[in-house]
Every structure is written in C-alpha cells, then in structure tokens.
Amino acid sequence: MSLRRFRALSKRVQPTQCRPLIVLQRGDDIILLNPEARRWYLTTEAGKELYVYWHEHGQLGVSDEYSSDDVQDFVADVEDTLYGESRVAVPEFGCAVYITEACNMRCTHCRFACATSASVLDLDTIKKYLDTEYARGARQMTVTGGEPLLVWERLTRNTLAYARQLGMNTMLLTNGSLVTDEIARELAELGCVVQVSVDSADPKVYADFRNHAFKPVVRGIDRLIEAGVYLAISTTLTRRTIGEVDDVIRFALEHGASSIHFALLEPGGRAEGAWNELGLLDSELIRFFDSIADRYFGGLRESLRIDDFEMLMKQLVHPPALEGCNCAVAISALYEDGLVYGCTNLCGQERFCLGNVEDKSEHNRRRMCLVSSMPTVGQIAKCRDCEFRWVCLGGCRDRVLLTYGRLDEPDPYCDVLYSLFRRLLFEAARLIEQDNT
C-alpha cells in the first residue's frame, strides 16, 4: 500500500459518529465490526489499539513494534474491509411443498398438530407451483408434512422427481418409520437429501415423546444409509430431550449420518399446550449451544456436520441482501389446501396467503403486499441497534406472531440467537484465518 494511497484514504475519513465501529473480543481474538456495511475484521489487541486510534483521531498512532509502512498497510486494509464497497450475497431462493398434514405419529411437540388423516395436494398443482418458483429463482425444494411417505406412491416420489427434472436440489423431511428398501433406493436415485427426526436414541424416551416405536425408524435410517442417501438427523431441543443430545449425536455417527440439525421448539400446535413442560430457558439453550460449539470446533466437525452452525457461519461471511424476514422474498410454501403461503411455518394463515398458483397476477400482488407489510429489522426496537441485525434480520416472524400476537417484536429466542451469532462469528473468522495460512 503506497503512502499516496494511504493519504488519499485519510482524506475521506468521516467524523467518528458517522462511522460505526463495534469491538468484540473473545480471548486473544478481537473483531472490528461495521454492522451497517455487514463487514468485519479479525485482529489482535495491538491491531485494535492501532486501528481504534486511527478511527477516533484520523491519524496514525505510534508503535514500537511496527514500522510506519506496516501500520499504514494494516489500517488501510481494515478501512477497505470495514468501509469499502459493501459486498452482500443474493439470497438463496427456496420453496417447500407441504404435501399432507396426515401423519402416523402424534409427537408431543408437533408444530402443526398433525392428524392421522388429512387432505393431500394433487400433482398438477404441485407442478405449476414448482414451475413458478423455479422461474423466480428457487433452486432448493423441500417436501414436508405431516409424513410425506404416507403418500409416497401417490405424490411424494413424483414431486421429488419433477423438482429434480427442473434442476432443483431436493430434501425430504420424514420421521423415517415408513422407509422401505425400495423407497430408499428411489430416494438415492433421485439424489434427494433426507432429514429424519430423532429426538432421542432411547427407545422408551422416543416412544413417550412421539407416540411411536423407535425400531422402525432405526430400520428406515439403516436402509437409507445402505442405499447411499445423504442422511441428516433432526432433533428438537426441549426439556425432555436436551439431555438426550449426546446419545443422538453418538447414534448419528454410528448409523452413518452426514449431518445433524438442532431445531428450536416452536410455540404452536401441540407444543403450545405443553410449553411449561417442554420449553427451555434462554440461559439453558445458550449453555447448550456453547457446549456443543466447544465439541464441534474441537473435533466433531471433522466427522459430523452441524447444519445450523454451518448455515449461520455462511451468512456471517456472505450476508444476504435482506432487511428482514425472507417470508415471500426468498421462500414460499405450497400448502395442502392448494394455496401458496409466504413460509412453511405460516401455512394456513390467511394474512400470509399468496393465493393459488393459477392466478399469477393476484399471486404477485399479494406477494408485494405481504413483503411490504413485514417489518424490517430497523423497525423492530430491540433489533435496531443490535450488532448482529444484519445477519439475524430480526429472527423468525412466525415465532414472534405466535408469542406476541404481532410482528414488530424481537424473536422470542433473541438472546439465544445473539449468543450463537457472536460465538460463530469468531469461529468463522478463525476458520478463514486457518485456511489462509
């Protein structure tokens, strides 16, 4: 970096109050963060002192350890990183098909209180929906329910096949109990990622929690692995199951799963009536994620991917160009009633309905109205000044609505998310540092 370049950079320095800077520290690692530009810089205590002096006074400090050229280069590098041209990622578009509300289990925590029988979609409607979403840019399609394998022959297989034909990546969410050798083979041929819910590896705890035997689930998982399917395990964090996580991780490793997902308990469906029994305190969840992060970045990452951690670190490194919830922006869902909604979790709620797949003009009009009605992160009081507003984006609006009955409140798991983003920012920074050395 030439002295001329550094002087030019010095001339454009704005008053300190116009230049946001947040300093975060964990051990010897320090991160300088500009939330407005969604940019950050990993440094040391010495680097922080040099840069903060420059940031506050607009001139170089003196250092016995570094030459003036080194200091100029360092400060200019930080300036370019924090206040240079903003680089944000285009949100990844996805869609979901809520194929049926019918389910062969009655899980205590079910978000949708699924029943043993329910209506299902028809394939023509699904194809029209997928055509529309693919044209909008969706490249990820998830089939969920209910239990999608209840209608495998009739609907689910053809839905996955059509999405693959369009060029979408596909995922199937299932409880795994109905997987046969043939279904496993067909899922492998379709290149479908399969996520199986396992809240406990103890057959008794599993049966008490899901009102179904565990053995058929284990058999289904083994069939998927034998067929070569990419398997993810999903476990919901509740007071009854959080003590089972170590065993679930061990189970996932022993049975050949590639990744695991930790789902937060949602305040709806059957869980609403059992919240006092199942809900965890924020402090308990924060300790849990800290403990899991210690284990994950201490070596577990080499053998089992934690999808939540990897997804959030990706967003911290490549923040999405969003100002709030991605409902109806980068995600939508086709519900079993044949109507499209802004998000899978908001299916069945009129105010989030985008209409049917036939009427595209009405569909687009409703989408625009819905997006404009959703609060941005800057319109949520607690979120407005949070250093992680640029990546958290206010959290999940569905959870907010279910908890407070309105949309302009922070996510009820706000403190948990803050702690998680902060921890993962340092982990992501360290991983990048290791890759560059």
From TrEMBL:
Q: Which domain of life does the protein's organism represent?
A: Bacteria
The record, for InterPro entries, names: 4Fe4S-binding_SPASM_dom, Aldolase_TIM, Elp3/MiaA/NifB-like_rSAM, Radical_SAM_PqqE_MftC-like, rSAM, rSAM_sf
> Gene3D superfamilies attached here?
Aldolase class I
Does the keyword field hold Membrane?
no
> Does Acetylation show up as a keyword for this record?
no
Q: Which SUPFAM superfamilies match?
A: Radical SAM enzymes
Which residues does the UniProt record annotate as the domain Radical SAM core?
Answer: 89-301
MF terms in GO:
catalytic activity; iron-sulfur cluster binding; metal ion binding
| Name of the protein in its database record | Radical SAM core domain-containing protein
What is the scientific name of the source organism?
Candidatus Uhrbacteria bacterium CG_4_9_14_0_2_um_filter_41_50
